[in-house]
Design brief:
It contains nine helices and twelve strands. The protein is of the alpha+beta class. The chain has a five-stranded mixed sheet with strand order 1-8-9-10-5. β9 and β10 form a beta hairpin. It starts with 10 loop residues before the first helix and ends with a strand. The N terminus is likely disordered.
Length: about 290
């Protein structure tokens, strides 16, 4: 509105102005660590969440939200050939049961999920390694082709889940954060090494068109039915690890209970999520 009136607006100064106002009219930022037990603190810290107290040099995340709103090849190799190029000692990543896996999921909406529920409907436009088969590309339901996506850090999960809008909406569709350890060792095809090259693909398998990578997912799953899924590079978080877990056989790898399960709008996540969004230049909403 100011810009439309011919008044030059310096976004940085405006943000600082709103932050100063928010600090005067809002309660002081609480210490995120105070919301969690020591065990939860350790779990969240180990997957990249900064639970330290608010630092005066930081922009108040509540002010940032207010200010930002105010200014604001399609065919894989045949299955037999894929099976022949596998080198088990080189191409399989073993994920130990002590490894923390992170996931952001939505509990409401068109595809509501629980922390441990595989999605058997697909392929969806955003699902890079959705294994469901569809003749015309429209989503179908296949009880033998479930998928769950994980990362090793909160930042990677946030970057991937909210990549379309670059805005972390903590209210709509009730997004949740879950941290868990697998119940057994996961065996995943390593797409970060030389397997894609030997199979006739490239590292673009982790960043190229999803209609193409979904074809690869189906072929890989048929060629290596004993594997739990794939280990790949996040195209949204500097190539950090991401996992697509398939069921079967992945369901047997899920624990009885997660280590951490929180709604994204939990007050203890206000500041840690704001820091993640600052790193990604994402907007935090709600």
């Amino acid at each position: 509105m100011l810009a439309e009136a011919g008044i030059r607006v310096d976004t940085g100064k405006f943000l600082r102005l709103v932050a100063d106002a928010a600090s005067k009219i809002s309660p002081p930022q609480s210490n995120p660590a105070d919301y969690f037990s020591p065990q939860q603190q350790q779990e969240l810290t180990d997957v990249g969440m900064d639970l330290s107290a608010y630092r005066p040099s930081e922009t108040d995340p509540r002010a940032r939200t207010v200010a930002a709103r105010a200014v604001l090849s399609e065919t894989a190799y045949p299955v037999a050939e894929l099976a022949a190029v596998l080198r088990p000692t080189e191409d399989i990543v073993a994920v130990h049961p002590a490894t923390r896996l992170v996931r952001v999921f939505t509990a409401l909406g068109n595809h509501p999920q629980r922390w441990n529920s595989f999605r058997y409907s697909g392929p969806l436009p955003h699902g890079r390694f959705d294994p469901q088969h569809s003749d015309d590309g429209t989503p179908t339901t296949d009880p033998d082709a479930g998928v769950l996506y994980f990362a090793l850090s909160v930042r990677t999960s946030v970057a991937e889940v909210f990549q379309i809008t670059s805005a972390v909406d903590r209210t709509t569709r009730s997004p949740h954060l879950v941290v868990l350890r697998p119940a057994r060792t996961l065996r995943l095809l390593d797409l970060t090494g030389l397997w894609p090259t030997r199979a006739g693909a490239s590292q673009e398998i982790s960043s190229g068109p999803k209609k193409v990578t979904q074809v690869w997912a189906r072929q890989i799953r048929q060629a290596y039915p004993g594997l739990d899924g794939v280990w790949y590079r996040s195209s949204m978080d500097s190539g950090d690890p991401a996992i697509a877990l398939w069921d079967p056989p992945g369901e047997s790898a899920l624990p009885l209970a997660p280590s951490v399960l929180l709604p994204l709008n939990h007050p203890g996540l206000d500041l840690p999520l704001a820091r993640v969004c600052e790193e990604l230049n994402y907007l935090l909403l709600g």
